[in-house]
Amino acid sequence: MRQRVITGAVFVMIVLLGTLTGKWPFILLFGLILFACLWEYYTLIAPKDIWKDLWRKYSGIVWGMIPYVIGIYLAHGVTMPGKQLALFVLLYMTALLAWFFIPELFVRRSERFSQAALGLTGLIYVALPFGCLPMITIAEGHYSYHQVLAILLLVWSNDTGAYLSGMRWGKRLLLPQISPKKTWEGWLGGLILTLLVGRLLALLLDSWTILDGWIIAGLVSIWGPLGDLVESMLKREFEVKDSGQLLPGHGGVLDRFDAFLFALPPVALYWIVLR
Question: What are the φ and ψ backbone dihedral angles of 143, each rounded to 5 degrees?
């Protein structure tokens, strides 16, 4: 427990330092977090020290950094005509399909299609959500640190509320086949605390309306726990306890950002398109 508390405190300090000191430290920090999440994911699905697994790991990481870089460019006001953007997306997806599936035609192993699909899934699961982050926190080149801190605070509030209420009142299991400890009472406690924190953030942040606070908190309360459950499903599939060992007492970086990953796309959709 002591190690867990110390690791958690140091990790929070690093995140705060990276987000509060400016745009480029923020970009570097979350670029490193993305790299760590991709590394853990591809190590999980390609664990052997052979050229086939190493090729999938390193190529997946390289492809996975691209959406984040594109998100940074778009957040700085770089625009593309609709036809050019559609062509770029089409070429990117076609190249990905070719990169992950065609080599599997020439290797000798079972489950080649599923292995290629797992490599492609890592980009959708990890990389694309991080591509949304710069567009939430940077507008026309101007960085708003409170945006990312607010989302992180909501995610942490949801985890804390779910843990405390689940420990105190948890009886009805949410999805016992995926996570034997998560309960409906815990989810409800996380929802209530997150909505309260969202309301408080709306009072503190000039750029947030009361409706923004309710909606973003609600999205985090729904999608965050789903992200946690999806990562639990992933770890059960590969029979591991943690995604990595980088954070003693907490597991891996992907373990700490599983809820954040799932919450980012719907929050970005609301903030950029629907708001």
Answer: -90, 135
Question: What is the distance between the alpha carbons of residues 215 and 272, in angstroms, rounded to a whole number?
Answer: 13
* Number of Cα atoms under 13 Å in the Cβ half of residue 74: 17
Burial (CB < 10 A; 0-12, 13-18, 19+), residue 186, is buried
With the C-alpha atoms ordered 17, 146, 150, 42, is the resulting torsion angle positive or negative?
negative
Per-residue pLDDT tens digits for 171-225: 888 888 888 888 899 999 999 999 999 999 999 998 899 999 999 999 999 999 9
Tokens of 203: 């009072």
Cβ neighbours around 7 below 10 Å, total: 17
* pLDDT tens for each residue of 48-97: 777 777 888 898 999 999 999 988 988 887 666 667 777 877 888 888 88
- The distance of Cα 165 from the centroid of its chain, to the nearest Å, equals 24
**Backbone angle region of 109, left / alpha / beta, with phi > 0 → left and psi within -120 to 50 → alpha:** beta
Nearest Cα to Cα of residue 19 among 136, 124, 123: 136
- Cβ atoms of residues 126 and 57 within 8 Å: no
